[in-house]
Amino acid sequence: MPEDSGPRDSRAETGPDGLSGGSFPWAEEAAELLRVIRGSRRLVFFGGAGVSTASGIPDFRSAAGLYAEDFHGLPPEVILSRDFLFLQPETFFRFYRERMLYPDAKPNAAHRYLYRLEKRDVLRGIVTQNVDGLHRAAGNIRVYELHGSVRENHCMECNASWPMEKILFSEGIPRCECGGVVRPDVVLYGEPLEKYVCIGARREITNADTLIVAGTSLAAEPAASFLNDFRGKKLIVINREETPADGRANLVIREDVAEVFSRCSG
Ligand code: ZN
Prior knowledge:
The chain is an alpha/beta fold. The protein has helices at residues 27-38, 60-66, 76-79, 82-87, 89-100, 109-119, 134-138, 164-168, 195-207, 257-262, and strands at residues 43-47, 123-128, 143-145, 148-155, 161-162, 182-186, 210-214, 234-238, 251-253.
């Protein structure tokens, strides 16, 4: 929490610079962030797991690591693979239910702020590596879910669509009425990204005048290479840890993105 000597509800008040919450150590950076957003016409947001941690969704790699022995020490990259879904579907779905589904998670301040920016027609697109579906839950429409969404599932036999609850509340291997296995519309290891999602995401990044990269270490390919398409003037990185993009960014804020956007009212 910031060292805030103001009143307890100071966050509800907004200063002339569009920031709320009184003084805090990175207020200058936040003010610069707002100036850039206000000067943007084609803003694009590129996000990762750090966008959803304030909603109670851990990065599945770290969350999986804590309980690895429950799954014979197998790394999530092995379990969440196409081969594993076919060879050991019961273990796949046990891991998937326990580690990937957060039915009670709600959009946080980051999702809500991005929704407001889209409504104002400043934000042209969200490109996300997350599969939690929280940007759409917040109301955003221009969302490119590079790795799919746990909220959408389909039967591998008849292609019927099923909601998340179908997998959440089934035991063992979830099955369609036709008997086929119901799988999530999530891109598994060993599967390519959805072609048209990639084309749309790259187009938005190419046409953006400002790109905000947040909550991602940019470790995952090929998503990370999407940044090379950016031709705009302002690159902003908001992440707790260093990223490979920091060096060429116009502004780097080493904070939780939900915390940063909770300060932004303008
Ligand atoms: Zn079916």
